[in-house]
Amino acid sequence: MLIFAAKHFEGGQATFFNWIIRLAIYARASLSIVRRIASKLFLPTVEGAVLYSSLIFILQQYSDYTGIVYDWGQAYNALGLYTLIWLTFLWLFSGYDKPWVPRRVMKGIAFGTLALLAVYGLFPETMRFSRAILLLGAGSFTLIVSIGRIIFGGWRLGRKTSNRLVVANEVESKSIFSLLDSLEPHFSSSSNQSIKPQELDSLLDYIRIHKIDEVIFSGRDVAASAIITSLASISGTVVSRIAWTDDGSVMGSGGLGHDPVTELDGAIYGPSARRTKRLLDISLSIALIILTPILVLTGRWRWVLRSFSVGLGFKTWVGINIPGTNKGAFSKPFIVLAVDYDDIRVRERLSLSYARQYHPFEDLKLVLNSLLLQNEN
């Protein structure tokens, strides 16, 4: 439209139409951003409001039953804090990442409850009522979340018919389909398709056009570097697994095995793993900045500078680097190399293992080991 206005109008008219078109573009972009933010906040806001109301109701009933009179001004603040902690833990455990998996949701509520019980004694007297309120609140939150997710849909409760895509050469593709049929005899796929490893550049377009919701890579035909790059681009859009026809197993992002509901959420590119990795980066950076005097005295002052780089988001503490991997998949420079082997094949396999199932304690171990041994990467 801007080109059209520049060609067909002159002077003040061109400037006016140019301004109108730009305004429309910016307005549409702003509206899209607002809509996306609103859609992300809608469910937590609704669940938080209902949980907060239920906690108030529970406390009122508890007060009437026990005869204890509470300072309701302080009580409202305390219950608001409880609600915020529960919602935060549910978010940390991917309770708001679709598809909603019951296991993740229950873990978020359970760990939120445990955290509240653990720090309950540290709260001021005015913010403490009874641990029974926390337990009743946990039960109430579980009920609220379960009903809400049923109403809005999106639970991942079992294996559904899917459009499968196998990335392998022709002979290997047939072997993989036979392997899957033997491992999952009761599973029905509405469409079984395959592409060759050389066609991976068009994988994302193929998934979109053919509405693919499960991609299975051949562990024999597809290089580890190619799998890692592909996982970076398709994470969150499809279920992804790796088939090894040599030993008759299918490896999901959670490890070896033929669990048909293995998700990409465990992979380093999943929203939960990215969130956990970033939180670890920030926590480690803050801890090392606090320890600045000790680091300077022991000749590790460079780690203070690194902490600022990581904390501000310019770098990450741990990363992988193997030839043939799309650099766009690892946009941030890293401080510590997760896998360092001279044998390229071993390095690729171990890098794939690191990428497909992220463990924050592995990052913590690598950083501390590098810090103590003064390893340079």
Strand adjacency order, main sheet: 2-1-3-4-5-6
Cα Rg:
26 Å
List the total number of helices. 13
The proportion of residues forming helix, as a percent range, comes to 55-70%
Mass-distribution shape: globular
Helices and strands, in order, run as HHHHHEHEHEHEEEHHHEEHH
Uncertain segments of ≥5 residues (pLDDT<50)? 252-265
Strand content: 5-15%
- How many domains would you count in the coordinates? 3
Total beta-strand segments? 8
Mean pLDDT: 80
Structural class: alpha/beta
Query: Distance N terminus to C terminus?
Result: 50 Å
The main sheet comes to: 6 strands, mixed
What does this 3D model show about the protein?
The relative contact order is 0.07. The protein has helices spanning 2-8, 11-66, 72-92, 102-119, 131-152, 170-183, 203-210, 224-234, 271-290, 292-297, 302-311, 344-356, 360-373; strands at 163-167, 191-195, 214-218, 239-244, 249-252, 255-256, 316-319, 334-337. The chain folds into three domains: 36-152, no CATH class; 163-265, Rossmann fold (3-Layer(aba) Sandwich), CATH 3.40.50; 271-373, no CATH class. Helix 2 crosses helix 3, helix 2 packs across helix 5 and helix 8 (224-234) runs parallel beside helix 12. It has 13 helices and eight strands. 58% of the residues lie in helices and 9% in strands. It starts with a helix and ends with a helix. With 377 residues, the chain is an alpha/beta fold. The strands form two sheets. The protein has a six-stranded mixed beta sheet with strand order 2-1-3-4-5-6, with helices on one face. A two-stranded parallel ribbon has the order 7-8. The model is unreliable at 252-265 (pLDDT under 50).
